Amino acid sequence: SARRSGPSRGSLALRDLEVETGRSQPVTKHIDDYCRSARRAHKLGKTLDDILAAAEKAHSAGSRTVPETVTAFLSEIEARSKRQGSSLCHWRNLRARLNKFAAAFTGNIAALERPPVQSWLKGLPHTAKTINHYRAAIVELLYYAKGQGHCTRDLVEAIADINPYRLTAPIVTPYSVKEMRAICDYAHAHAPRHLPTILLVGFGGVRVC
Predict the structure, then answer these.
(1) pLDDT tens across 43-71, in order?
(2) Which of 175, 172, 171, 185 is nearest to 205 (CA)?
(3) pLDDT at 87
(4) In the 8-state DSSP scheme, what is residue 5?
(5) Contact 34, 51 (CB under 8 A)
(6) Is 108 helix (H, G, I), strand (E, B) or coil?
(7) Model pTM?
(8) Three-class DSSP category at 206
(9) Buried b vs exposed e over 37-66: b needs ≥16 C-beta within 10 Å?
(10) Quick count: other Cβ atoms within 10 Å of Cβ 154?
(11) For the chain, what is the total number of helices (H) and then of strands (E)?
(12) What DSSP designation does 173 have?
């Protein structure tokens, strides 16, 4: 039979998927899985186009955007907390952090990569401790996504491996004269009965300044 000219429907589907996701790894993984069964498929009268079409279907079925995954994850956490009668504090913290993350990363969750996520974390206008909480929330989200089949273990480990911001203990120094004056002025105006105690406790710090 004559060979068809031009790209096949399967190759066009592959190209479109690679453009859509911005990376070829998730797509080629599905294709590799199906191509390992190509010989068996051939015995059943299947073509390469059939195999690629099945790969596209499997990829689409297993794909979720970051916002979609965040919504599903938060719904599950909220339902579990209410069912167990536990506090919603953890859920509220996750909601605030992950909604911010989802606003910055709107694409397929399987296409996330470590460098952009790490750069985003570094750019947050928060303390090191709070940034670590954001990182922990993202990792928790990815473990959920992995359990749902929406991302790979390699992705979870890559994000979890981002070095947490090292927290340094604050340097404790005595109050300066200016700081003690401001404290005493406030106490004199609003809590005069505490002023003698504040003066006695703070005297040592003022003396060594």
Answers:
(1) 666 665 665 665 555 454 456 899 999 99
(2) 175
(3) 77
(4) P
(5) yes
(6) strand
(7) 0.53
(8) helix
(9) eeeebeeeebebebbbbbbbeebeeebbbb
(10) 10
(11) 11, 0
(12) -
